[in-house]
Specification:
The protein is α/β, with parallel strands linked by helices. The chain has four helices and seven strands.
C-alpha cells in the first residue's frame, strides 16, 4: 500500500482483518473522489439515508439527511472551491467507525487561488457505504467522536 503522508495510512485501533479492510475502503473511496468525482463517490460510498454533520464553523453548516440533500450541499461547496482533492494522511478504525485525517486541496472556482486545509472525517458504515459522516476541523474533536458509544 502506498504511503500517503507523514504517517503511513495503516489502520490504528482495530488490528483485525475487518479494520484493515475498512481502512483500505476509506483510501479507495478518496481515490474515487479524486479520479471520478463527487457523483461516483456518493453513489458508491454514501448510503441513500446518510446523515452528514458539517463543522459548525462552516457557513450555512447544518445536519444534512439523505444522499440527495448531501449531494446538493456538496455541490454548493464545490461551486465555490472548484475541484477538491482528498489525500489521506492517517486512517484509524475502531469497530465499525473510521476516522480519516486528510488534506483537502483545490483552487477557488472563480479566483483560481490555491486552497488547502486539514480535515477529519468520522464515518459510521453499513457495508461499504457510510450511513453517518461527521466532518471536523480539529483532531481532538474527531478522536472523541470516534470513541463515543
Amino acid at each position: 500500500m502506498e504511503k500517503t503522508g507523514p504517517r503511513d495510512a495503516t489502520p490504528a485501533g482495530d488490528a483485525g482483518e475487518a479494520g484493515v479492510e475498512r481502512a483500505a475502503l476509506a483510501r479507495e473511496a478518496m481515490a474515487v473522489w479524486n479520479e471520478e468525482g463527487l457523483e461516483a463517490f456518493a453513489e458508491r460510498y454514501w448510503h441513500p439515508d446518510i446523515v452528514w454533520e458539517e463543522p459548525q464553523a462552516f457557513p450555512d453548516s447544518a445536519v444534512r439527511r439523505g444522499r440527495d440533500e448531501c449531494l446538493r450541499r456538496m455541490r454548493e461547496r464545490l461551486s465555490l472551491l472548484g475541484h477538491v482533492e482528498l489525500k489521506p494522511v492517517d486512517v484509524t478504525v475502531v469497530g465499525d467507525r473510521v476516522l480519516i485525517e486528510a488534506t483537502v486541496s483545490g483552487k477557488g472556482a472563480s479566483s483560481g487561488v490555491p486552497t488547502g486545509m486539514r480535515e477529519y472525517f468520522v464515518l459510521d458504515s453499513r457495508g461499504p457505504q457510510a450511513v453517518r459522516f461527521r466532518e471536523f476541523l480539529d483532531r481532538e474533536a474527531a478522536a472523541a467522536a470516534l470513541r463515543e458509544p
